[in-house]
Design brief:
Blueprint: H1 2-15, H2 17-20, H3 28-39, H4 46-67, E1 77-85, E2 88-91, H5 93-106, E3 108-123, E4 126-139, E5 145-159, E6 162-173
Parallel strand pairs: 1-6
Antiparallel strand pairs: 1-2, 3-4, 4-5, 5-6
Length: 174
């Protein structure tokens, strides 16, 4: 009789998911296992879309530098952005672009990024990016080629559905 009662109780609990859930359901371990099961099939997750959007903003900025044309790049930065280059505070992006970047780019014949790698971490409405690269510039006056290695760190903020750079720091070495 005990065997029959046990068999009925066992088959009943096995047929109802609420009775047969694992001890991990609803725990951090359960969430991690669920994430890992979905990881390979969920390539369009909100996180992946945000990382792609942040990379696109940074790529637009880098492409403008390579074209030596900064037209429209002010839309990639927040109004209260802070720019730092090689240990100097350059103020907001508008100040940096007008007083530093545009005059510097006028002195160049070409600018080319190579071996560019971008790592992005998203936390809420903020993104933290690190770019490593090498670049080659050619001066307009004397065709002088300069090879450099550089690193850029950026903090971006999502405003009204768009990622904008709010803090930008770069440095390079020959």
């Amino acid at each position: 009789m005990k065997a029959i009662v046990f068999l009925i109780a066992f088959t009943s609990s096995a047929s109802y998911p609420s009775f047969s859930q694992s001890r991990e359901a609803g725990t951090d371990l359960g969430e991690i296992k669920q994430y890992m099961r979905n990881k390979d099939t969920n390539t369009t997750s909100p996180l992946n879309k945000n990382i792609a959007a942040v990379r696109a903003v940074l790529q637009q900025y880098n492409s403008a530098i390579e074209k030596l044309d900064m037209t429209g790049t002010d839309n990639l930065f927040t109004n209260d952005s802070e720019i730092y280059e090689s240990g100097l505070s350059e103020g907001n992006y508008t100040n940096f672009m007008n007083k530093h970047l545009k005059p510097e780019l006028k002195e160049l014949k070409s600018f080319k990024f190579n071996n560019h790698n971008t790592d992005v971490t998203i936390i809420g409405n903020h993104a933290f990016a690190t770019e490593t690269y090498s670049c080659i510039t050619v001066g307009a006056k004397h065709n002088t080629e300069v090879k450099r290695k550089g690193v850029t760190t950026s903090v971006l903020k999502k405003q009204k559905g768009e990622w904008k750079i709010m803090n930008y720091h770069n440095s390079s070495t020959e």
